[in-house]
Design brief:
single chain, 815 residues, alpha+beta, Immunoglobulin-like, 4 domains, 14-stranded mixed sheet, nine-stranded antiparallel sheet, 32% strand, globular
Length: 815
Amino acid sequence: MSQGDWQLSQGDALTRFLFSAAKAERFAEFYTGEATDPAIDYHFRNGAGPKEASFCRRVFRETHARRAVDPLQALPCHDVTFTGESDTVSFSDFRHVAFHVQRWLTVDLYAPDAGEFRFRLATCGGVRIWNQGQPIVCFTPFTRNQMQPIEVKLPLNAGQNRLLIHLDELFERDTLFALQMIYLDTPALGVALPDVDGTAVNILNQFAGGLRPELAAFNHTVRVRCNEPAPDGLVCGGELHGMGNDNFTALQLDFGAVEAGTTALSLPLPPETGEAHYQLRLTLTRAGITLTRYLGVNVMPDAPVKASADTLAGRKQEALRYTARHGMDRTGRLLAMLHLGDTGPACERLLQTTLKRISAREDCSDFSLVPLLWIWRYHQGEHFPPTLWRRVKSTLLGYRYWLDEPGCDVMWFWSENHALCFHTAQYLAGQFFPEERFIASGRSGREQQNIAHARLMQWFDAIEVHGFVEWNSAPYYPVDYIGLFALYQMAEDAVIRERARGLIDRLMLQSALHYQHGVAAGTMGRVYEKELLAGSLTELSAYGTVAWGQGGYNRKCASLPLFCASDYVPPAQAAQSAHLTHGALSAWYRCGGGNIVVWKAPGVSLSSCVDHHTGEAGHQQHLVDLQFASRFDAKIWINHPGEAEPGGEKRPSFWAGNAVMPRVVQAENRAMLLWDIAGDPLPWTHLHLPVEAFDCVIPLEAGRIVRAGHAFAAVLCTAPPQAITQGLTAGSECRAMGRQVAWYLDAGQGDDAAFAAFCTRIAALTFHLDPARQKAWVRDAASGDEMAIDMAGTHHPFPALKDGELRVEHTGVKG
């Protein structure tokens, strides 16, 4: 122990620390803030936001960056960090209002001799370091969600050095809060955790690293397979956090002692836990040591409620009843309850939480504000006492509707869905209260309506030409629908109503192309891991159920109740695309700078966004998607991860988006991806292929052939993909090492004879990559057919389309 329990060599990341609980305090809660009027061109971009720091952050820098921090006030550090494959310690999270969050960490470093030892230090937030009580580092850039690096020399004594580290950051909605310490010098350093047995830490760390949760939790039980048998004396607990934009309160969980030698955990959740996406923060405690492993959990319904009505009107009523009874605690559920006359204590509680959220100007409160205006329009004066309705009115008049109104909050105004909701809310509030004075702006309602009208016209002008940058997005189309259905149903201006209906029609037609037997699938302009891993739980899937049948209802209700309470009827062509029963279709459309190609058969669909920002840094764009009709989780995609650990907070993350964007081409049922990822920290791409979701998986030297129901596909790679057999993604991930790599997907449908012929054809293919020419090609020796891709984009050009044009052709099935 005298020289530590672990060695830190040159190039290694220091990731073992003891850390404290979080100290979190509201920041600038009673500041008036400021009003700005930035020029917005309404040509939206993924990940784009204001160039200047927020008012809150500027104040925070002025008051906190160089303040004195007393190490004697450090909170006790007990828990052990767990980073998995990542080289970064992260405390990232989401806060709807501004919070100042602080953490303390400690570690012992053992130096062979006294001297200065170089580290590359990087942080999202600010970091201060003391050695034996003496300050040695203060680095406080406080740049939101951007890791800022600096090279530092840590003065260490010969032998033991106890470091105390203080981290703090201003949380503004989704916030990266992280520390990275890469050792740069040559003499190895020893590492230990103060007063903690390193062997015990290793045992617990090894067990935690080998946990493999099943994707879906059924019967309110999270099942986790263990690559390492459970050690003796292990106790499990944790917290369950909601991943939706609802009023879910984190649940404290106690799973009790785990029997030594156990190789599978069954973790029961409270029976009242509704089906949804959750994050399970699983705490593992043994021998006085605790570490936490974050697991994504998709709680599935015990008995999925399938659509039974054979008419649109009937399915709308079914969805409203399901939402009123089981929906997430958000304003959409309240709307469904009032529409059905299903009132009571739960209804009033939902209204109170809605008003609290809007009055606090929480981030995403604009998503609640629009349904509240719908409720005012159709139910004002009903069910609740007059005093509560007066509070509704004062909440609507007191809100901050745009950046040009004073405010000190962390609301996000800069994405296409938020801009639409803010403008819709301002327009309708002004329409409903034309002579009232709005508190934040000081304007009359009529002035608010006129200003919002001009902004909506700009928004429609841009979207009608460019399309949605968040194309086909399972998490964000339902948010777009909040504003669109409210305008369609309630705007007094006929032009606005018609433009809203036109965009709803466009979204319905596009979504139908990607709808695959109850699942909203396909390439998406913006998505998170949770939607990719459990598509049947998305609200966009429930939209498909109401519009076209086949699927089931779920608890998501950002805007579905608005659709169901409206008189809107989707275009007949959308139903034809959604209910494909024979042959196949091919489709092309442009959306938000993306060129979208779709091929769809009854049992499988393949879609891509081609030639989209090739070689640039990506965000949350999901470029290629292969979805089978047999199961929601029979889904395949390929990406270059933005971080090394599944379930992280980065954008792009492990599964969602690309750190470096590839060249993509698609020709009907075949697609290719080509990467050049020189210089990126992660020199590999990977395939999501959940083996258990398929009827058969045939390994090939260069990839895999899969079959699900009457559909099948092949995935090939120029760098033979290696199956991951341990950890969170065992059984669902294959990695291809290499900075220049190409992937090929080929889909088909048919009977046993068609599948046998498909396998024979795939076996005869040759797949080559020429790094010097940055070109790859697949050749069928029997037919002479060849498909090629290069970084220059000279192959398979996208067809010329007019603005907003959707081209759909019915074809036969290749295979």
